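[job 4417] fold queue: 2 targets
>>> target A
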Amino acid sequence: MNNSILYRLDWWLVLLYLLLVTVGITNVYSATYNDTLNSIFDFSQPVGKQFLFFLVSVFLGIIVLSLNVKFFEHFANVSYFISILLLAGLFLFGKTVSGATSWYNLGGFSLQPSEIAKLFTGLMIAGLLSKFQSDLKSIRTLFKVACCLFIPAILIVLQPDPGSALVFLAFFFPLFREGLNYSYFLIFLSLLALFLITLSFQIFIAIGIICFLIFVVFFILKRLNSKIKVWPFVLVLVLSVGYALSVDYIFNNVFEQRHRDRINIVIGKEVDTRGVGYNINQSKIAIGSGGFMGKGFLEGTQTKGGFVPEQHTDYIFSTIGEEWGFLGGFFVILLFCFLILRIVISAERQNSKFRRVFSYSVAGLIFLHFFVNVGMTLGIVPTIGIPLPFISYGGSSLLAFSIMIFIHLNFDANRLNDW
């Protein structure tokens, strides 16, 4: 490694990364603590494995920092192809856990290719958008980007793991930064709203609400501009009603029962504190019982009693809320906010479109994971089983997000000189 890169590294970003990993290892230790656990170096226990994953991440990070910046541009296509092969290989060699064939069994460890696919898809998207004639207003470019996103997402949905597939929406963050029309975002929000409205009400009531909303929008725009034509609104109305009529089929045939149950609980159609709603309910109890200051390290009764399933993975934030209280949870949220903001700020000072797009992809992925995971533990987002970056137990997630950070650090440190 060129020694001078140490002077150009964003050490504030390194500090934020190390703080989040430290919070993660500390709370994985607490969430999995038992009488046989003596130290974090016990590699037969989750905390020992997590610490080992961290050491491997740092080792790989040092290698990443030593690589020529151009290597990542040349490697983008190959890495994406490798991730697709890994995802496709799951259907032959994958291990099924909780109904999803999402892991390879490697001795005492497991590899989840969907986490690696996010990293390599970020490089691929950056490579596509940095090409000379790449323009997001071009149908050809949009088609290439859509294929790049849909191929891994569809393979992940077929595992089936729709929660991990939804994370690919994070790539809209760099796409909007690079000029994608915001109308696509409005269309997505409209489809999501229609989906939830149709699920929340009987179909004829949902169609009535849709007609009313479209009429109100037309009336307001007509008052502002008398030249507004009627036919676009009629077309939107017909398409919206058709979409609403198809929601029930999509919901009952595309989503699995466990996903349907979780969505129904969030939108209030079901109240279940003992069945599928048990996790969310116990998570909220744990966070609420922590109060302002928390119960203290290793003092969480919900955590120690094992009331929150998967607490060291998807529900790790409930451990933070119970043992460290509002202050601890707020501190973790601040760390994520500062980390994401730091990445975005440094992304804007890149002199290469490839590096800027990749850095925005990293920021988008971290934000979406953070928002959904914390929202899930608070019961405001359906349980879709995605980890809290750097904190939840899981080697694939920690490795993937760590390498993303180190690639970004490499880009930022060498933004003024391509060596």
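>>> target B
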Amino acid sequence: MKQTILLVEDEKVVRSLMCEVLEKQGYEVLACAEPKKAIEVSMRHPGRIDLLLTDVIMPGMNGRQMANRILEMMPGLRVVFMSGYTENVLLDEGLIDSQFEYLQKPFALKTLMQKLVHVLGPPQKTVQ
């Protein structure tokens, strides 16, 4: 069974590219442009969500606030934050903490895949 990633990224081009890459690597991707939509999707999705992969700075609600809301419904959900800000700045501002994984933007797709394998293990491709 494919692992499911809830991807939250407000930049359309970045979201589309990441979605395409993740699907080619064998993940099921639930892509959202904003935190409120991601919370709705997480409540309505009938299957398991294995990972929340989210930008930190977004309009309306930051990634940490959204992650906290989703984690209330799905304790133990793994989370990877992404941002153009350095990890130290985000830690100092309280937007992330060391219990979560972090990817500094821009990142190579290879770096993204290495992070996902570190957090989830190798993608589980379905046999056709």
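[job 4417] complete. Note on B: The CA atoms of residues 58 and 114 lie 25 Å apart.
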